[in-house]
Amino acid sequence: MVFKFLWGLVSLEVDFYRGLGFASAASSSLLTSSSLLTLKTLGLSGNICRWSLAPDSVHLPSLEKLMVMKANAGPLLRALVVPTA
To answer: Where are the alpha helices (DSSP H) in the chain?
Structure first.
């Protein structure tokens, strides 16, 4: 599954739930899309048991706000590379 977003996207909220049938690889490709480089706000919620993300593999240089409402968020948080100040 390939995700394409408009370049310049600044806000994205995604609710992963079983009904969508997202596999871990599909959800991981969503977060590694190059069109998310301009993202300022990211919200993720729902149920993903396994993330297929390597540490430091999701680069979001413009991110200002992150909202994560899900269990097992450790792999996701280890994958994020975001501004520090």
So the answer is: 24-31, 74-79
Q: What does the pLDDT read at residue 64?
A: 93
Q: Is 67 exposed, middle or buried (0-12, 13-18, 19+ CB in 10 A)?
A: exposed
Is the pLDDT at 22 greater than 80? The verdict is no
* Nearest CA-CA partner of 71 in 53, 45, 52: 45
CA distance 4 to 30: 8
Q: What is the DSSP letter of 20?
A: G
Cβ contact 36:11 at 8 Å: no
For the chain, state the CA radius of gyration. Answer: 12
Is 12:40 a contact under the CB 8 Å cutoff?
A: no
Task: Tell me the C-alpha distance between 64 and 26, whole Å.
Answer: 24
Strand partners, 14: 44
- Report pLDDT for 61: 92
